[in-house]
Design brief:
Number of helices of chain B: 7
Strand content of chain A: under 5%
Order of helices and strands of chain A: HHHHHH
Number of domains of chain A: 1
Distance between the termini of chain A: 14 Å
Oligomer: heterodimer
Structural class of chain B: mainly alpha
Low-confidence stretches of chain B: none
Low-confidence stretches of chain A: none
Mean pLDDT of chain A: 87
Radius of gyration of chain B: 19 Å
Strand content of chain B: under 5%
Chain lengths: 146, 238
């Protein structure tokens, strides 16, 4: 969406394919998410006296949840980038698609806090990430072309 | 069969998709749909005994609630197939069918939610209980409602069709997580579904007969409405 707002979308279209742009943007969003999580999780634990029973399980949730969030939001941003009212539209299209990611992520975070590894929600996260990544890869050019 | 051959076969199949045309025998089937559905409704209320473990006659809702849910899922699947056909062929007629299928899917999904709420009122004392199944179905309405918002936000017909097709396919891939996976990960009050862990349909013969007859009838109604919607869209385009 930023590319369209700053008018650099056309230049980017001229030099890169949809898959390359999607991969780059999703990776950037993922790294940004990890950076925020690296600050937010310790701050949350410190301020709210939150004891994480299983840090490894929590790290798995952050990685899997973060990737799912990044790939889905990046793909949907590409779809709405050239539509009117894109900021509102992004919220409308992303909310129902992100809930199935957030629910198992919350369940797995609760389990990680209590010191256990919730296998089913983590499996759901892996499946969701895999499905979303494959779909975004196959549809990237359709979302990006002009 | 090589990957290229599989891709070519899929492309040929998808680009040869056409909405059903009611000519000859199909016209007769369309006329028979009314007495057929009347027989299904009569069977649901007069032939089948209410199921055990349910209050009063509430179990009869299964003959309308589940076929509505099935038809909604079918409509979204049809929308995804026609969206794929559009992306492969760039024929706007496929986009019209996908759009019509989503609108009909939303209608049947709303009916599923209404019939489910009526059942919830009798069984659980309230029309809305924030049960995972109720919530996930409400989100399904939002998911495909967003498809209509997305279409409305793009002016250029070619771009609108391309973006809507990409969204419909992306939504179809993630929709099972919303409707089938998320409600099963959490505890739900919803009675055991037809697709259950045992892999068995737990119904007696009359119930099973009326139930599957209902599924066929609702599918017929959907195909008829889809054909009418696409004809209407074509007429408006002219």
């Amino acid at each position: 969406m930023r590319e369209e707002e700053t008018g650099t979308g056309l230049a980017l279209r001229a030099v890169a394919s949809g898959i390359v742009v999607l991969a780059g943007k999703a990776l950037f969003n993922f790294l940004l998410f990890l950076a925020i999580a690296a600050l937010a999780v310790p701050a949350f634990a410190l301020l709210l006296e939150w004891r994480v029973g299983s840090p490894a399980a929590l790290a798995a949730v952050v990685l899997l949840g973060g990737w799912g969030l990044s790939i889905v939001s990046t793909f949907l941003s590409a779809l709405v980038a050239r539509a009117g009212q894109r900021n509102v539209l992004f919220l409308v299209v992303s909310f129902p698609l992100l809930v199935p990611l957030l629910l198992p992520a919350i369940a797995a975070t609760v389990a990680a806090s209590q010191g256990s590894l919730a296998a089913t929600p983590l499996r759901v996260l892996v499946a969701y990430d895999g499905a979303a990544t494959c779909a975004a890869y196959l549809l990237a050019d359709a979302a990006w072309e002009d | 069969m090589s990957r290229g051959q599989v891709l070519r076969t899929c492309t040929r199949l998808l680009t040869n998709l056409h909405p059903p045309r009611f000519t000859g025998t199909m016209k007769l089937l369309k006329l028979l749909l009314l007495p057929y559905m009347a027989a299904v409704i009569a069977g649901a209320f007069l032939w089948v005994e209410p199921a055990e473990g349910f209050l009063g006659e509430s179990s009869r809702i299964v003959f309308f609630h589940v076929p509505c849910a099935w038809t909604a899922a079918l409509a979204f699947l049809v929308a995804a197939a026609y969206s794929a056909a559009y992306l492969l062929s760039r024929n706007l007629r496929f986009d019209q069918v996908a759009h019509a299928a989503v609108r009909l899917g939303l209608l049947f999904a709303a009916l599923t939610l209404v019939t489910g709420s009526l059942f919830a009122r009798i069984m659980w004392g309230s029309f809305w209980n924030w049960d995972p199944r109720e919530s996930s179905y409400l989100l399904l309405l939002f998911l495909y409602g967003a498809y209509l918002f997305l279409r409305a936000a793009v002016d250029d017909p070619e771009r609108r069709a391309r973006i809507a097709a990409a969204y419909a396919l992306f939504a179809m891939v993630l929709m099972p997580f919303l409707v089938f996976v998320a409600p099963r990960v959490t505890e739900s009050l919803h009675p055991q579904t037809v697709i259950n862990p045992q892999g068995k349909i737990l119904m007696d013969t009359p119930t099973k007969t009326v139930f599957f007859a209902g599924l066929v009838g609702f599918t017929g109604i959907f195909l008829w409405l889809l054909q009418l919607e696409t004809r209407l869209a074509r007429a408006e385009r002219r």
